[in-house]
Design goal:
The protein is mainly beta and about 375 residues long. It contains 2 helices and 31 strands. It is globular, with a radius of gyration of 19 Å. The site of alpha-D-quinovopyranose has 6 residues, from loops.
């Protein structure tokens, strides 16, 4: 297991460093001290071919604005906050409006667009980077000074763990996620339409025209959102359903998870055999199938287009500050915010997703 770091760019006279963590079997994760952005994940297919399985840019400059939020940690609050304002402890706070008068993904200069301190570590067979950042009181309109830590850890079982930890000196909203787009075909040979996705979820959130939860939990039964037995993405994306249409003909929806750390989210590409199992302690996961990916942008030499990648953004339910019946993500002063999401990369030799990839194996 080893970690290599190199200067990959510069911003505001500060070096941007790329950290490449490589385990004993050839799997690699590359990430930046800017936005904690994951720029590459190199993982094997069923024939042992090690290829990149995430969307990103081949140089730093486009990451400075990063409209698609490729690979980034999102905060203070993932998702949209309706009207870019909320009330807390009798005070109304106004946030930066960066989409249709609403606040999206932490605002104009959210966590995806700041430079984090970084420290590498090797503990046993675990190697990683500890990113830390202090969000000042009033940043993007939020109350409180918040000390945030995000740790990326890779082990020799081809597992990438993202651990989030934060503490604030005042009550403040906090709902963190990672916005990596996965494409298990390898080097973006194909889009994700033939990927299969399985999620242990009986309910999803209805969205309004601005893609903000209405507050209604909808039963997935007999809808394209029933992913409990696994579904080919193309089947769901092409379904005739108002919520699929509203999101730009695809998924962009929060799912309420029935289970935690129990193979609750499985993404599988039958052609390459690559399987990604995501386990989390978070309440939900936003599935976004890249419906709004811009055309023609260079993504590692491939022209970007709809459905080139799928995001599995584990997080609290979006816009919870305006829905008292959603689990709250108000971080109380002095309390510790702690969340873990684990990404397990394997190959399914014979299985398909319906039996949860029980035949899966790691090429290690
Ligand atoms: C679009 O609605 C989607 C979001 O869910 C996504 O995070 C963003 O593009 C990158 O706004």
């Amino acid at each position: 297991m080893r970690i290599i770091q190199k200067t990959w760019g510069e911003l505001s006279q500060q070096p941007i460093t790329a950290f490449t963590i490589r385990n004993n079997y050839g799997m690699e994760v590359t990430c930046l001290n800017y936005g904690c952005i994951i720029t590459k994940i190199i993982a094997p297919d069923r024939d042992g071919n090690y290829e990149n399985i995430v969307l990103g840019f081949k140089e730093f400059t486009p990451y400075i604005t990063n409209e698609p939020y490729f690979g980034a940690v999102i905060g203070r609050v993932a998702g949209r906050i309706s009207g870019a304002s909320f009330e807390l402890n009798g005070t109304t706070y106004t946030l930066h409006k960066n989409e249709n008068g609403n606040h999206l993904h932490g605002g104009i200069k959210g966590f995806h667009r700041v430079i984090w301190d970084a420290a590498t570590f090797e503990i046993g067979d675990e190697t990683g980077v500890l990113f830390s950042y202090t969000s000042r009181d009033g940043e993007e309109g939020y109350p409180g000074k918040v000390d945030v830590q995000v740790t990326y850890t890779l082990n020799n079982r081809n597992e990438l763990t993202i651990a989030y930890r934060a503490i604030s000196d005042r009550d403040t909203p906090l709902n963190l996620t990672n916005h990596t787009y996965f494409n298990l075909s390898g080097n973006l040979k194909r889009d994700i339409l033939n990927h299969q996705l399985k999620i242990k979820s009986d309910q999803f959130l209805e969205l309004n025209q601005e893609l903000i939860p209405t507050g209604m939990f909808l039963d997935v039964t007999d809808t394209p959102f029933d992913l409990r037995a696994g579904k080919v993405m193309k089947e769901g994306i092409e379904a005739n359903h108002p919520q699929i249409a509203l999101a730009g003909q695809g998924y962009d929806h929060p799912f309420l998870l029935n289970a935690h750390h129990d193979h609750e989210i499985i993404l599988f590409d039958p052609e390459s055999g690559r399987m990604l199992t995501v386990e989390t302690d978070e309440t939900g996961v936003v599935v976004y199938t890249g419906n709004q990916l811009p055309d023609g942008v260079d993504i590692y030499g491939v022209r970007s287009r709809k459905y080139l990648g799928v995001c599995l953004e584990t997080q609290g339910l979006p816009d919870a500050v305006h829905h008292p019946h959603f689990p709250s993500w108000i971080l109380r002063a002095g309390e510790v915010y702690s969340s873990v999401t684990r990404y397990k990369f394997s190959v399914a030799t014979k299985a398909d997703i319906s039996n949860g990839g029980r035949n899966r194996s790691t090429v290690v």
